[in-house]
Amino acid sequence: MRRSLLLPRLALTSAVAAVALAGCSGEAMFPGAEDDGQETAAGETGAAQPAGPVECSEPPAPPSDPMAFHPDDLPRPKSGDPETLTATVQTNCGDIVIELAAADAPQTVASFEFLAKEGYWEDSACHRLTTSGIYVLQCGDPTGTGAGGPGYTYGIENAPADGYYPPGTLAMARTMDPNSNGGQFFIVYEDTQLPTDGGGYSIFGTVVEGMEVVEKVAEAGVEGGASDGAPAQPISILSVEITQ
């Protein structure tokens, strides 16, 4: 099934949100994602030491045969000890370091760790950028279409009741189905208010280094000048390393 992405100029009303999250088409929605969709958690992104200029290299060719897992491969939730893990997402535009909230989102972090160790996201493009009303960079689909998923899905956890997602938040994208979290996720680069209908979007981490990478991609805008679509500055995940 294809998942729906965020709609351009998504109005922050329940009516539009319902359309935006309607996953009937199978396209990964924003903030929703694949049938096995995904999303992020906010955190302190600022006050870090000034970073040097971001330089992007040519992105790699996407995987010709994306990995697929069995529904039974969904890993067991983390125990919450340790409470956090660190993920280093290497991209062709630089590294993004994320503190994963294992205690707050144990199932999401367990899945993220599993997929990272399997190399699921290697050479996968971040396929979606939104620049009006919702401010996110969406990644995590090796097919680059917004419709791909790992083969298993799970439900929402640690979604903010007020629908507020600050800059630096890492959350799962999903379709209208609250049990459609899978492999797609998004990073918020400006204050964003998302609909809470259907349960919201699982926050599972905070960017602690490398927000300048996301900001550079956002500054370049969307391909063709739209407000929702493929980033004009291509960015791909090369690898994801998890440490305690």
TrEMBL record:
Q: Which reaction does it catalyse?
A: [protein]-peptidylproline (omega=180) = [protein]-peptidylproline (omega=0)
List the Gene Ontology MF annotations in alphabetical order: peptidyl-prolyl cis-trans isomerase activity
EC number(s) given by UniProt: 5.2.1.8
Signal sequence interval, chain numbering: 1-22
One Pfam family of this chain: Pro_isomerase
- Chain intervals with Low complexity compositional bias: 39-53
Q: What top-tier enzyme class does this entry carry?
A: isomerase
UniProt biased composition (Basic and acidic residues): 70-81
Region labeled Disordered — which residues? 30-84
Q: Which family does it belong to?
A: Belongs to the cyclophilin-type PPIase family.
Q: What does this protein do?
A: PPIases accelerate the folding of proteins. It catalyzes the cis-trans isomerization of proline imidic peptide bonds in oligopeptides.
Give the protein's recorded name.
Peptidyl-prolyl cis-trans isomerase
